[in-house]
Amino acid sequence: MSKNTLFVGFFISVVFLIFGFGLPKKIEKKVVKEVSKVFEITTISMESVMIPEEFKKELPTKLTADNFYRLVDNSDVVGYAFVDKAPSKTAQFDYLVIFDTNLKVVHSKVLIYREEYGGEIGSKRWLKQFLGKSGKDRVDHETNIDAIAGATISVRSMTNAMDNLLQTIGMLQEKKAL
User: Fold this and answer.
1) What's the pLDDT band for 44 if we cut at 50, 70, 90?
2) Distances in whole angstroms, Cα of residue 175 to Cα of each of 10, 47, 55, 59
3) Sign of dihedral through CA atoms 87, 88, 94, 95?
4) If residue 48 lies in a helix (H) or strand (E), which one and from where to where?
5) Lowest model confidence (mean pLDDT) among 3-12, 149-158, 168-177
């Protein structure tokens, strides 16, 4: 067996062990692809970030072992990833937010959009509005995030989800939980 075959087998096994407990397979593949692309690393491990129970009740965004991860390369933390769903008009869409080590947004992506209209929120051009945002920033669809004709509900939903996530990150940083 060649070294490449062994490496690929090992990598797939590690990914399965890491993701086997929470993310659906379709989402898992997309998350691994995006994280690898952002950090230009082929072997990155995703460790669940455990938030103390006493903090969880007051957080605007629910963080669990299945949606918030520390991204590690050779025992060095390179960033964080958050995966969740947000409502659209009649369904929900899955999205990913990737942070650097300072917990600033370096990438966001709509992983799966399940509606006929409003999918424009998945465009890189629209999502780049969130880049560089941190727990100190607020985002709002009426003041500092551009609207998209025909995607009003999805724009509001994604913007509210991002604002809640940023508030959550900020609160956890203040409490030295991250």
Assistant:
1) confident
2) 38, 21, 9, 12
3) negative
4) strand 45-48
5) 3-12
